[in-house]
Predict the structure.
Amino acid sequence: MIQNAYVGLGSNLGDRAGYLLLAVRGMLDAGLDVIRLSSIYETEPLENEHQPAFLNMVAELRGSTLPSPEQMLARLLRVEYALGRKRDVPMGPRTIDLDLLIFRDQRLATEFLTVPHPRLHARRFVLVPLNELVPNLVHPVLGKPIRELLSQTKDRSNVVRWAST
């Protein structure tokens, strides 16, 4: 049984690592109890490939202190807005992107939010850091552990642990 929530963080504009850290700070300031962070990974963009490489990571949030999924999404969107996130180009470059990946064992599909994230299992840039944190976590819909989803994904994009220079 999944008790916690997992948020994917990504940035490919400006000080990418700085934006990731500011987003973690923003989540804490928004009352979200961040308890663990994955390593940071440099990843190649998918779909809209003509843009800079991303830095991605996953944050684990304590389940006993979580608001509702909708309230959590609203807080994540406020953090994105505060960090200059623009949505002019679909899948385009961004200062910060915060995705609610998994929210406890909940399944939700509304006009604004789908949990678990509908493309989580198809994205190495999410699966690699999630696997680092919780390889045995079972996907609430697909019924497979993260490590298995990672080994089975068709996504072959480059995901490399990032080391700041």
